[in-house]
């Protein structure tokens, strides 16, 4: 990571580590390519202070040590999404020695839009022309030589899924270093007007702000200034630049209005289109007929958004239908056999009584009630991954972006939030979760409009892109991405949810030997603040205590409820307790019947028949116990509150690292809490007014 | 409640706090669930 960057100006320096950044569009096969290159040597961390994963790997090729750094997948290097900001900050400030740009050969035009921006950076670029097999299958003829000539970079056809071209790619990487500065890409021309302005700006900057030239690639800086890039303007902190800008781009502004950013986007876009025309020969049109037909409906100005919400409803519904039987099965296995085994083995080791209680009523009740959601999370991640891989999510992003734009907001920045939300609120039915999800989006839009005039000024250019063709995601990639997304939930369960479960158990049992949980420390604090929540319908101490514990992280609300409402040791079954093997067999058979039930559920969702059995008699699950202190309406208000209020430890840590002070955290905390309270209030009181579930 | 219990409780509570610190604070607020670019290992 910290290797000297000097290698760029000298031919191979044996000992220096070559820093290679891997960039590319989402879905270009970047993950697959990196996996093929690095195999098990991949090391996963995260970018400082943010929620995006950072993957690195150390390789060696012909004695040259190479550090691969995976940049987040982006369509552009504009400063609007977290991914874009991370990618460009790394490229601009950490200056890797080489960029490997993973380009989807079946989608050249859209991918070249990013490539062009990478070429602006003055760093050697190597293009991995990936998914080459599919392009060939479609009858695309890509003139690799012409592409190399036009871009002035090495282009290597690759098929990441079959590890084809990996060696050539590494050869090109080490070769580029040997070539030194001759491996720098050709500077692309964005048309006379723009180039003249760039020239003037560059000269002016070199002249008047030499310090900036040290910090940024010149051409890139000039282009960004023209675009009015807020992040660069803020970072560079240049006052005198105004007059310079007036000279350089005054006439452009006159001709095109203030919006030079759109002008630049257009210039890159048409260059990408032109390049594509030059190097790519497509067979006659038939290829996208299907895609176009679907898109005519899915992207329809009026149908687009309803279809998006319907698709999400389907995802949530399928998720729950598929996973609910398994969740019940897991619940049964954890609370029955697993609890008995742990109890028995703790007794066998002569552990004290309190330890047995800590294990069963603390750890198992707490972590267990969160683990019950594992099937839900994985099913949901599976369907989301499927939508991403199939190409639909790109359309959803486009549709949302278009809608936001008509309200003057940045659509793209909403998408990650929208998707990331799923794992935070374990709810009890697909439709409930879906409605919370829709509420989250609507609120985000409302807040966006509200703050538009104060906090987030300015507009982003519209996201005009060729959309990827629909394709069936491969099983392997589905498995990889589902696991990647789902595993975080398991990590959480094994780390802080476990830790908090233990601490909550103590708080529920202190002062030592307290009879009634309500008189424990946690119970007392919960009772004290409960009145605050009374107008929201959940002014009981149990809910308040869970919310207090939940300030550490949202899943903990569920875990804490599990501990508070823990069933008193299940009534001993008559006769001898089942043996270990009987337990195992029982777990096996109930798993099989859960599988059957899930299958029937899914079939009935798809609408073939309505085989679905009536809600079976509730067992003593956590849900049914909780149902005693909540009405459906207050439970809904509670979930809305949980969704919106801030898990402060996680957020506080993030804020502290981001801004270095507590002030913003305080502001955000107060704001979020008030928002959550108000929404839950409206939900509950409004619901009562209309006589729903009162 | 003997001395052994107290030692055990101390260890458990200490361990829990350490786990909490390590998984939440030291990770700089990295929220495992909400990454929007969760990709391959
Ligand atoms: N046919 C073909 N498919 C590929 C190739 N590389 C990746 N894929 C598939 O393209 C999809 C997206 O790949 P992934 O690595 O998840 O993309 P990422 O979003 O850029 O990380 C997956 O279904 C992969 O299996 C390739 O070279 N050829």
What this model shows, in words?
The complex is a heterodimer of chains A (694) and B (41). In chain A, α7 packs antiparallel against α11, α21 packs across α22 and α22 packs across α23. Chain A is an alpha/beta fold. In chain A, the strands form two sheets. In chain A, strands 2-3-4-1-5-6-8 form a seven-stranded mixed beta sheet, with helices on both faces. Chain A contains 28 helices and nine strands. The longest helix of chain A is centred in the middle third of the chain and has 45 residues. Among the domains of chain A are: 166 residues, Rossmann fold; 90 residues, Helix Hairpins (Orthogonal Bundle), CATH 1.10.287; 223 residues, no CATH class. Chain B has 41 residues and is mainly α. The longest helix of chain B has 23 residues. Chain B starts with a helix and ends in a 16-residue tail after the last helix. Chains A and B meet through α1, β2, α15, α18 and α20 of A and α1 of B. The structure holds guanosine-5'-diphosphate. The site of guanosine-5'-diphosphate has 21 residues of chain A, from α1, α4 and α20.
Map the helices and strands.
The complex is a heterodimer of chains A (694) and B (41).
Chain A: E1 18-24, H1 30-38, E2 42-46, E3 53-61, E4 64-70, H2 82-94, E5 98-104, H3 108-119, E6 125-130, H4 132-137, E7 141-142, H5 144-151, E8 154-157, H6 166-179, H7 192-208, H8 210-215, H9 218-227, H10 230-236, H11 241-256, H12 260-279, E9 280-281, H13 289-298, H14 304-348, H15 353-371, H16 374-390, H17 392-406, H18 414-420, H19 430-452, H20 475-509, H21 521-533, H22 541-549, H23 555-564, H24 580-606, H25 622-627, H26 632-644, H27 648-659, H28 663-689
Parallel strand pairs in A: 1-4, 1-5, 5-6, 6-8
Antiparallel strand pairs in A: 2-3, 3-4, 7-9
Helix pairs in contact in A: 3-12, 7-9, 7-11, 14-15, 14-16, 14-19, 14-24, 15-20, 15-23, 16-20, 20-23, 21-22, 22-23, 26-28
Chain B: H1 3-25
The complex binds guanosine-5'-diphosphate (GDP).
């Amino acid at each position: 990571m910290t290797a000297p960057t000097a290698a760029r100006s000298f031919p191979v320096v044996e000992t220096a580590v070559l820093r290679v950044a891997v960039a590319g569009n989402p879905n270009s096969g970047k993950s697959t390519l990196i996996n093929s290159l690095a195999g098990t040597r991949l090391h996963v961390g995260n970018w400082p202070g943010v929620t995006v994963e950072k993957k690195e790997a150390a390789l060696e090729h012909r004695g040259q040590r190479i550090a691969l750094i995976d940049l987040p997948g982006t369509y552009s290097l504009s400063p609007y999404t977290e991914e874009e900001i991370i990618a460009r900050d790394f490229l601009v400030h950490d200056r890797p020695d080489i960029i490997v740009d993973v380009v989807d050969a079946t989608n050249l035009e859209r991918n070249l839009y990013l490539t062009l921006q990478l070429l602006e950076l003055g760093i050697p670029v190597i293009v991995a022309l990936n998914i080459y097999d599919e392009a060939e299958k479609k009858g695309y003829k890509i003139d690799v030589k012409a592409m190399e000539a036009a871009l002035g970079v090495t282009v290597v056809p690759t098929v990441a899924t079959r590890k084809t071209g990996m060696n050539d790619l590494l050869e090109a990487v080490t070769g580029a270093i040997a070539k030194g500065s001759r491996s720098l890409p050709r500077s692309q021309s964005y048309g006379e007007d723009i180039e003249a302005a760039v020239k003037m700006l560059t000269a002016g900057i070199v002249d008047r702000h030499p310090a900036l030239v040290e910090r940024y690639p010149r051409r890139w800086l000039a282009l960004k200034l023209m675009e009015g890039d807020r992040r660069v303007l803020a970072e560079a902190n240049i006052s005198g630049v105004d007059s310079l800008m007036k000279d350089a781009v005054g006439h452009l502004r006159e001709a095109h209005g203030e919006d030079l950013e759109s002008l630049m986007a257009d210039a890159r876009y048409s260059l990408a289109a032109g390049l594509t025309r030059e190097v790519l020969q497509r067979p006659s049109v038939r290829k996208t007929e299907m895609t176009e037909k679907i898109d005519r409906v899915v992207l329809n100005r009026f149908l687009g958004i309803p279809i998006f919400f319907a698709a999400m409803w389907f995802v949530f519904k399928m998720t729950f239908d598929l996973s609910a039987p398994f969740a019940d099965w897991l619940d049964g296995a954890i609370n029955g056999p697993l609890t008995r085994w742990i109890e028995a083995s703790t007794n066998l080791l002569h552990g004290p009584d309190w330890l047995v209680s800590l294990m069963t009523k603390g750890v198992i009740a707490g972590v267990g009630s969160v683990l019950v959601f594992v099937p839900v999370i994985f099913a949901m991640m599976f369907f989301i991954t499927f939508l991403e891989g199939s190409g639909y999510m790109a359309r959803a992003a486009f549709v949302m972006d278009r809608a936001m734009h008509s309200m003057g907001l940045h659509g793209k920045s909403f998408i990650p939030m929208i998707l990331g939300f799923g794992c935070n609120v374990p709810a009890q039915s697909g439709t409930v979760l879906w409605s919370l999800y829709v509420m989250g989006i609507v609120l985000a839009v409302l807040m966006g409009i509200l703050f538009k005039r104060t906090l987030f000024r300015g507009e982003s250019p519209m996201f005009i892109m060729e959309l990827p063709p629909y394709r069936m995601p491969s099983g392997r990639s589905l498995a990889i991405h589902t696991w990647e997304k789902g595993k975080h939930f398991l990590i959480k369960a094994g780390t802080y949810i476990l830790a908090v479960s233990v601490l909550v158990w103590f708080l529920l049992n202190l002062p030592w030997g307290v009879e009634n949980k309500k008189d424990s420390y946690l119970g007392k604090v919960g009772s004290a603040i409960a009145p605050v929540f009374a107008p929201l319908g959940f002014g009981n101490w149990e809910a308040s205590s869970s919310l207090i514990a939940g300030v550490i992280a949202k899943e903990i609300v569920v875990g804490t409820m599990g501990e508070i409402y823990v069933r008193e040791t299940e009534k001993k079954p008559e006769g001898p307790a089942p043996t270990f093997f009987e337990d195992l067999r029982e777990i096996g058979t109930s798993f099989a019947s859960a599988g059957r039930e899930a299958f029937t559920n899914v079939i009935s969702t798809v609408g073939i028949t309505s085989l679905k059995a009536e809600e079976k008699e509730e067992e003593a699950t956590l849900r049914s116990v909780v149902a005693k202190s909540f009405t459906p309406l207050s439970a809904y208000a509670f979930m809305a509150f949980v969704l919106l209020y801030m898990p402060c430890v996680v957020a506080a840590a993030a804020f502290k690292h981001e801004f270095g002070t507590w002030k913003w955290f305080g502001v955000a905390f107060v704001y979020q809490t008030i928002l959550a309270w108000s929404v839950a209030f409206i939900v509950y009181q409004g619901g009562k007014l209309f006589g729903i579930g009162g | 409640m003997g001395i052994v219990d107290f030692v055990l409780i101390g260890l458990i509570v200490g361990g829990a706090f350490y786990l909490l610190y390590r998984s939440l604070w030291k990770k700089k607020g990295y929220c495992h669930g909400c990454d929007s670019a969760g990709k391959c290992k």
